[in-house]
Each structure stands twice: as structure tokens, then as C-alpha cells.
């Protein structure tokens, strides 16, 4: 009986006219950088929309973080007789320089892998490290924060990251500093990186307002028949140089559609559905970290799975990053086969979205992402001014919603022994997926 009702609801999900409209509404509110009016407007809008979708009161969960608001960011190429101003975007939370800035010779590290840093180790002290942004949704990706840490470890006085594509302006991102020690860092365009790559001198000026701040996660709970839960999550915040459409208005719109579709059924499910919209994700996953840390061990034990949606449109190919949980992979393979939707699987834990904080606490968790290992897909525009709604096809959103709804409904209705299998075993996790 419940199987028939799930099938009916998921059939209707394909016709859900609100899905693409929600994406556009979120993009209209702007890039949602935490601490801005755009982010607060999105939280207000999502609170109401999630209450309507779930039929439940939405709880605001305040998260303290190191607030940071850019007042000035300039990067100049210093020539013998003139200084050329380059297009630049400060990395969120960057160390500030004061009005005089940091001036030094630029060392071009290419992509900025550990090998690149090792090869230039002797040249970096007192200089500015220049690396390149790279396609983020790929197995061999070296994260920007890791590159910045290597620059600091080698004594660099500044950090510049050039866009990987020409013609799109500078890249955005977080410094991951969270109010601690650091060096000034900024994203620049592909063309600016080329101008600086010949050993030029550069001046970075970053000024910002800093201080304690608070942003809200949003939580809604639809109880099932027992006190165990499936947590469906997506992050709210983004960057202010674009609409942050793929990353992550897509995930938010899909969470709302899945919640609308399943809300009437969840009271008949073994497990409840907890929807968690996390804030300050772009600031080193701060909102979900605070949330998971605030749960007791008993609360954590009652969560059988975290389904985290981050950048789920922009390509027709969906992948699940299964955080080392072999059992989650087996579960998702079965769903993909039963609903005829292929899914890519990548097992190593990738600390690139909120699922990582659940996984770190021992809670089975996966991230659904579009375009994994597809550097030619529209996901290449994430963190650039081109992350806009026109990069997303309505059918991509629907496919992500359908797969997610299947996964959530099956996890909510699985037997206890099936749900326990999500954790897999260390031996399973060490084995490559078949
Ligand atoms: Zn994201």
C-alpha cells in the first residue's frame, strides 16, 4: 500500500511546477553570502517555503561564526613606471592588509599541487603565491584551502588564485581562516593570472570589517512511526559575485520539491524526515559542523542517513560521494537499478560539503552532485560570476529530485537491519566498488 503511494507521489514529482520557480526565486535574491542582506532574505524566504512544503514549524538554529565583510579589495600589477589594476574578488574571511597592502614578487606555482609547492619551496618566502582554480568536482581535485595553507607554510605573504577559464572574471571562494592567523588572499581572472605569471610584482590590498556574527540554519521535522530519522540537507549560502544558482540554489529547490512530495507520506514511514538547510557552508562547513556537534550521541545514533544535496544540476550526470560508507553505495546502486536512473559512485570521503560533518561523526552520509569528473559540464562555472540560472535545465532539476525522493523514501522505510547496513564495515570500505 505504502509502496503504491510512494510511486504515485514520485510520479507527481515530475509534474511539480514549483521546482524551477523556486530556483529562480532564490537566484533573484542574489548570491546569499553569509552576513549579507541577500542571505538574510533567502533565510526568510526559505523558512516560509519550507514550512509550506513540510506542513511543520521551522526552527531557526543560530550558528556563531567569525563574521567578515569586505570593504576593499584591489590587486595591482606593479610595473617600472605604472601600476595596473586587476579584477579581483577577496577570498571570504581573508586576512586584511591595511591600506598600504602587501607588495611582493609573484611566484607562479601553476596548478598549486603539493609537488608544485615542493618545487618552489625555496622561492616562496616573502613572496606572493599564484595558483590556479581547478574543476572542483573531480577525484584528483586539490582544494583551494589546502593550496592556501601550503602557501602559508612556505612563508608566502599573499595568495592569488586565477580562474581556470578565460572570459568569466575572477573566481570566488573561502580562505577558511575563521578569524585566525593568515595571509591576504584573492581570486583573480584567468587573464590577470597570465599577466602576473612572468614574475611580476603585485600589490594586494584587502580591508574588511571583522567581528562575531550569527547566521541561522533552518530545521523542519516530519516525524515517522519511530524516533529514528533520515536527514535531507542542502546549504543556503553562496558567494556575492553571482547568483550561486548551481551551488546551491539547485540543491535547495530540490530539497523543497522532495519535501512537498513526501510530506503526506512520512507519518506512515518507519523513520521521520528531518530537513536541514545549513548556513555558512562556504565558510569551511561551519553551519553543519555546529549542528552535528550540538547533537548528543543518542541523537546521532538515531540518524540512519544524511542525504546532502550540493550542486545537483548543470549536467545530466548525477554522482554520489559516499564518504567511505560501502553500505550506502550498495543501497544507492539498488535504487539506481530499480528506478532506471544511472548514478556515479565515488567512495573516498570528500570534505567539500556538509555531508562531511555527518560522516566525521560516524553517521552514514553522501553528497549528491552533478557533473562529477565532467570538466566540460556547466559545473565548471561554479564559484564564478557565470553560476547563473541559465546554466540549469529544468529536466536536470527534476531528475535530481526524483532520485533524491527515491533514496529518501527507501531510507525512511528500510528495515532496521537494512538501515544498519548503511554503515558498511571497514573491510567493505577498503575494497574498491564493484
Ligand atoms: Zn556548495
Question: What does this 3D model show about the protein?
Answer:
By secondary structure, the protein is α/β, with parallel strands linked by helices. The chain has two domains: 283 residues, Aminopeptidase (3-Layer(aba) Sandwich), CATH 3.40.630; 143 residues, Glucose Oxidase, domain 1 (3-Layer(bba) Sandwich). It is 33% helix and 24% strand. The chain contains 14 helices and 14 strands. Strands 1, 2, 3, 4, 5, 6, 7, 8, 9, 10, 11, 12, 13 and 14 form a 14-stranded mixed beta sheet that branches. Helix 2 crosses helix 7, helix 3 runs parallel beside helix 7 and helix 7 crosses helix 12. 55% of the residues are buried. The chain binds zinc ion. Zinc ion (ZN) binds next to helix 7.
Question: How do the strands and helices of this protein lay out in sequence?
Answer:
Blueprint: H1 2-13, H2 18-28, H3 37-54, E1 59-78, E2 83-86, E3 88-90, E4 102-108, H4 114-119, E5 128-132, H5 144-153, E6 158-162, E7 185-188, H6 190-196, E8 201-222, E9 229-235, H7 245-262, E10 272-278, H8 286-293, H9 297-301, E11 303-309, E12 318-321, H10 326-339, E13 344-346, H11 355-360, E14 365-370, H12 394-413, H13 416-420, H14 426-430
Parallel strand pairs: 4-5, 5-6, 6-7, 9-10, 9-11, 11-14, 12-13
Antiparallel strand pairs: 1-2, 1-8, 3-7, 4-8, 8-10, 12-14
Helix pairs in contact: 1-7, 2-7, 3-7, 7-12, 10-12
Amino acid at each position: 500500500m505504502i509502496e503504491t503511494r510512494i510511486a504515485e507521489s514520485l510520479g507527481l514529482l515530475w509534474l511539480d511546477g514549483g521546482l524551477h520557480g523556486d530556483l529562480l526565486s532564490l537566484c533573484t535574491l542574489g548570491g546569499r553570502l553569509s552576513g549579507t542582506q541577500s542571505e538574510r532574505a533567502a533565510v526568510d524566504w526559505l523558512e516560509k517555503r519550507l514550512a509550506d512544503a513540510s506542513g511543520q514549524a521551522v526552527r531557526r538554529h543560530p550558528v556563531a561564526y567569525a563574521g567578515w565583510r569586505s570593504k576593499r579589495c584591489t590587486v595591482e600589477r606593479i610595473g617600472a613606471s605604472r601600476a595596473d589594476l586587476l579584477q579581483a574578488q577577496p577570498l571570504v574571511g581573508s586576512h586584511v592588509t591595511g591600506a598600504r597592502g602587501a607588495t611582493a614578487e609573484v611566484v607562479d606555482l601553476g596548478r598549486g599541487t603539493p609537488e608544485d609547492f615542493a618545487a618552489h619551496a625555496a622561492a616562496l618566502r616573502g613572496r606572493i603565491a599564484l595558483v590556479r582554480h581547478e574543476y572542483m568536482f573531480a577525484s584528483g581535485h586539490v582544494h583551494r584551502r589546502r593550496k592556501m595553507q601550503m602557501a602559508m607554510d612556505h612563508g608566502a605573504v599573499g595568495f592569488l588564485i586565477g580562474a581556470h577559464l578565460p572570459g568569466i572574471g575572477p573566481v570566488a571562494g573561502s580562505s577558511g581562516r575563521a578569524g585566525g592567523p593568515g595571509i591576504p588572499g584573492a581570486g583573480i581572472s584567468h587573464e590577470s593570472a597570465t599577466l602576473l605569471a612572468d614574475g611580476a610584482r603585485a600589490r594586494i590590498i584587502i580591508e574588511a570589517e571583522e567581528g562575531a556574527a550569527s547566521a541561522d540554519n533552518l530545521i523542519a521535522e516530519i516525524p515517522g512511526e519511530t524516533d529514528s530519522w533520515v536527514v535531507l540537507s542542502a546549504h543556503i549560502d553562496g558567494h556575492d559575485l553571482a547568483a550561486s544558482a548551481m551551488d546551491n540554489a539547485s540543491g535547495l529547490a530540490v530539497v523543497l520539491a522532495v519535501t512537498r512530495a513526501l510530506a503526506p507520506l512520512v507519518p506512515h514511514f518507519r523513520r521521520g524526515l528531518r530537513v536541514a538547510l545549513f548556513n555558512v557552508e562556504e565558510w569551511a562547513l561551519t553551519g553543519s559542523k555546529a549542528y552535528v556537534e550540538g547533537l548528543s550521541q543518542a541523537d546521532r545514533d538515531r540518524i540512519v542517513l544524511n542525504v546532502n544535496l550540493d550542486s545537483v544540476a548543470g549536467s545530466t550526470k548525477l554522482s554520489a560521494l559516499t564518504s567511505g560508507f560501502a553500505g550506502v553505495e550498495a543501497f544507492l546502486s539498488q535504487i539506481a537499478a530499480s528506478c532506471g536512473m544511472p548514478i556515479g559512485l565515488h567512495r573516498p570521503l570528500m570534505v567539500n560539503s556538509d555531508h562531511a560533518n555527518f560522516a566525521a561523526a560516524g553517521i552514514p552520509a553522501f553528497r549528491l552532485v552533478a557533473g562529477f569528473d565532467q570538466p566540460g559540464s556547466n559545473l565548471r562555472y561554479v564559484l564564478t560570476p557565470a553560476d547563473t540560472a541559465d546554466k540549469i535545465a529544468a529536466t536536470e532539476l527534476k531528475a535530481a529530485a526524483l532520485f533524491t525522493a527515491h533514496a529518501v523514501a527507501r531510507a525512511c522505510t528500510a528495515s532496521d537491519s537494512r538501515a544498519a547496513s548503511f554503515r558498511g564495515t571497514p573491510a567493505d570500505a577498503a575494497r574498491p566498488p564493484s
